[in-house]
Structures are given as structure tokens and as C-alpha cells.
Amino acid sequence: MGPDEGKTLKLRTRRVFTGSMLTAAALTAALLSGWTAQADPAYPAPDPDPFYSQAAAEGTAGTPISVRRAPDLMTFPGVAIWQVSYRSTNSENKPIAAVSTILVPPNQAQDGPLLSYQHIVNALGTGCAPSRALYASDPNIVIREAPILNVALQRGWTIALPDHLGPNSAYGAARLGGQITLDGIRAVQKIPELRSAASPVGMAGYSGGGMATAWAAALAPTYAPEVNLVGVAEGGVPMNLSKMANGLGQDPHPAFGLAFAAAMGLEREYPDLLPLSNQLNDLGRSMRTELTNACTNDILRVGAGRSASQVSTSTSLLSSPEVRKVMDDNSVELYPGVPTAPVFEWHTPDDVLIPIDSVVNTISRYCAAGATVQSQLFPSPDHLTTAVLGLPTAFEYLQDRFDGVPAPRSC
User: Fold this and answer.
1) Quick check: is 311 in a domain?
2) Residue 126 domain-assigned?
């Protein structure tokens, strides 16, 4: 395969990964309405590796539980790879065990820059999380955009890759992703072997990874004020799940599998508010079983061309106040907190997959509160092309913040 063919293949593959909260969030609400009964969510199979054990989730948030050296990867030449499990907090304020993978470049300086990068993860199975997917050869699991991180590693940045969907792969729970991200940074800075205790910290992510990043930035002043967060780069962020859902009809959709998976993930995180399982018909229950441990390609395949009316017994859009609360609680536009770290935000004005007005409203609110925000448009034909166009600028933005250059403000 030649270099141009490789680029084409990567672009086509990236289009499959249409952001963990995009069409999924817009379609999910049709499944989450009119419920009165409660049901047990379909949780993923627990990881057999005791490193991922929930039983060890003790101490304060960000406390390391276990640290280990992981096998080297040809994807990251010369890079030492570590994994850390640590204590975090779920959406019900209960302790959970989370995991992050740490990439340490050979030219790392003591207390050099630390980047927390939130991958796009469309999954219900724990085997699809970055700590597992980086070592996968299965095309349903492998993270194809991972090699771009070598750009940052060559600069000497240490990179943390959190499994930001959490131990139950709670696909859709964006606020949870922000908390796991911040606690992962805390944990890294408490591990002497990683030489990052006093590092300046940056964060970056796009689409679903951008949701975790945007939430982490907004939560940081109150959730993790001790983290020296010097810059944030967030792109293509779905900032309001309810708005996305309100514009959706009931017609069959090629990406309905993502919607169904997001409904399952939210049920895992909010079992008392979203008893999805009691609202499924025979087809819905069959899909639920097939997707319980699925990654992106299988999720798309199983749900292709389906609709809410085909899989559920109730399709009243957003009629449940409990559903509205869950959606609102995971919409960063509606969260009153404002980032204190400088923020670079990018998107395309022609993005049909996210509500652009929510992006504009959120950035305007940040600016009105005095935040340092640079917002940049990258006109492009689709959502994921914008990720490719904006990421080099995002890395340069973070480099300037690591170097102490004053952040620009486009408000």
C-alpha cells in the first residue's frame, strides 16, 4: 500500500469513528423516555486482569492503586509505556477504579510537559478502552489515530491516555469522562517513576474525546484545583446532548447502533434514572445482548438501519424528566463552571453532527466570564476532517502554553 492509499484508508476508517457522542447522542433520546420501571443494566464482562479490579478503589480521588510497566509498542518507537490504575469517582459520587496508559518518550525531561489526550472511544466493551486497544490487532478495536501522538512524543511530552469511559464502559457519560481525566492526571503526578510531579499539564481531545476534555476543563477549578493546567485544546465538542436529541425524528438511521450503545452506556451510569432494559421489545433485547461487550464496528453493524420504534415499546421523545436531567447533566453548555486554564476550541461551521449554536453559546459564556479562549473555524466538508485540520494548530497552541507564552484571546 502506498502512502496516498494509506492516507485514504485512514480517512475512510476515521469516518466510521464519527465521534463517541455525535449521532449517538442525537439519536439516544428516542430510546430514553416514558419509563417508570427499573431494570438491571447490561454491564460488560469484567476484565479478568486483577489490575482492573474495582475492589481496590480506596483513598481519595486520584490516588494510585497499582502501577506497572507495559510492553513496548512499535507504534511508539523508543517510548516506555506504563499503566496506572487509580481511584476516581462516578456520576453518583461513588468510588471507582480507573486506568490510564502513560507514554514516556526517551527525551523526557524531569517535570517536562504532561499531556492528557482523550481518544475517541465508541464502545460498550472494556476491551475497547485505550489501555487494551493500543495492544489490539483486531480491526474492530485498534486505535488507528494513535500514531499521530508521536508528534507530541518527539517534543518530549509525556502523554496520559485515560480509559475515560470508566470501568463499566459508560458510553455517553461525558461528565464522568472529565472526572476520570482529571484523576488520571493526579495519579500520574504522584508516581515517582513517571517524573512528572511538577509538570505543567495540557489536555486535548476531539469529538467524544473532546467532550471528556471540555468537561475536565470546566470541572478542574473545583474538582482538581491543584492541577497546574496551563492549556486545553478541545475540538468538535457536542456541548448539549438534549439539543441534539430534540432535532431527531424516528426514521431508520445507518448509525443507530451508536445511539443504542449510548443508551446502554447511560443506563450503566444512571441505572435508577434510565432503566432502558425494561423498555425493549424482542429485537431490542437481542441487540442489547449482542452489543453488551461490543466495539465500534460491531455496534454500527448491528444497529445499521434500525430506529427507536423498531427496538423499544415507548418512543415519546424526551417525555421523561429523568431523561432530561441525565442529558442536561452531561451537557457542558449547561454546566455553570468556567475553565480557568486557557482554551483553544476548534470546529467547522458546517458541521451537521453537532449543534454549533451550543458551541457558540458556551464559548460566549466563557468569554463573558473573563476566560481566555481562542476559537478557530476550520471550514471542511465533514466532522472528522476538521479534527485532522485542527490538531496541528492545537499542538502548537499547547506548545506555546508549555513554553510560557501568553495565551491569545479571540473573545
Assistant:
1) no
2) yes
